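User: Please run a holo structure prediction.
Assistant: Happy to. Please share the sequence and the ligand.
User: Here you go; the ligand is glutamic acid.
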Amino acid sequence: MPNPTIKTRFAPSPTGYLHLGNVRTALFNALLARRHGGTFLLRSEDTDTTRSGYEYFEALLEDLEWLGLDWDEGPGREQAGHGPYHQSERGDIYAHYYALLEEKGLVYPCFATEQELKMIRKAQLAAGQPPRYPGTYRDISDEERERLLAEGRKPTLRFRVPEGREIVFDDLVQGEKRFRTDEIGDFIIRRADGTPSFFFTNALDDALMGVTHVLRGEDHLTNTPRQLLLLEAMGLEAPTYGHTALIVGDDGAPLSKRNGSASIRELREQGFMPNAVNNHLARLGHHYEDEGSYKPLAALAEGFAVDRLGRAPARHDAEHLRHWQKEAVLASDTARLEEWMGERVAHLVPADRRERFVEVIRENSVFPADAEAWAEILFVGETPFSEAAVEEIRGVSPEFFHALLEGLEEDAGFRELGAALKDATGLKGRKLFMPLRAALTGRTDGPQLGDVLDLVDAECARARVQQARRLNTAEDA
Ligand code: GLU
């Protein structure tokens, strides 16, 4: 159902390049918004980062645009009353809400030092209890507080978690979730150096920016009860959350560089197509009714549904990504593909044959390097022969090459050439066509032979067949 009031968001902390793991979160949120004709918002959670964070953010914008996951609202696309979209620029807004919580008596300064907290944790662990802030500075007297402040101690600000309650929410992916507040220690919403904490800024900004749905990784699930409490305390409306299963690598461990993750930049440099990445990721932890078919981005959105998000860890398999890459190449239009094949192909393939080349070679290309290899095979004189090709070439008699060269001289078409070779050697079927393919291309795989003959540069073909003839009679490979 269209529902333009739906607003989702991607809220990365720009501490590195976008990679398969975090871009899936962006994709799911973008697809959910587009599915309903809603809004996809982008926010930079950069309270904790330095200048280099800014560079990562610029890179991230570029990567999202490359993937076609443009944001409807966010940096450069302001909506009155919602910006700024960099948390580092929202200090005044945060100050306002800290003051509100202070006024309501729902937060308090905590003077616990790192050392003190460490000791508490140690004692709790030793007693077999989960480590949790025990409320040491929750109820100190006003005098005590004044005294510590006068000493120049810099407190953090903690949220007073209400006692004896149960927080219940319906997770879009995981169903009903329940958390007891007695198991949640009072948590920090402003650090001693004055910077705001994730719980606070993330929840507050979602509410102030009108976000209605948040899809994010399961690792954030236990943050949600805290964020719901905070929003309730500030009198703000909470979004609906959905926590998606994490992506794991081929070894079952969380996806990382070590077990198969790659940055979007690396994938782009390798020649992956953006919508291959999208098709792959849209099926990691989410499935489509017609699972097998490649989809343009709009169709990925059309078929997206939160009730098709899975709870089991999603396994990233590089072979699957490669499969979608092949599909994306097959689905691309000629002009786009020509550009993708790159300058070397443009240089080697004569302009009048380029379009035909692109059409024929797309089936045999997963990456631009494959297209380059075919451009060399079809338009550059000699080429290395594969072992299998040499074997085919050694399996026929010298008459084969004689007839083949003659046929090429006469500019024979595929049928004529086949017939001439059959007459000269008595070979037919695979026994005839494999050596022919090997002699013309140096390989035993590739496009239809008719297409090869159509495309191949005549001089190049003759040089190749001469090369094959020499291999045919040579003692050693
Ligand atoms: N900045 C957080 C992160 O990158 C956002 C988490 C969320 O989606 O709520 O993990």
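The longest helix spans residues 51-67.
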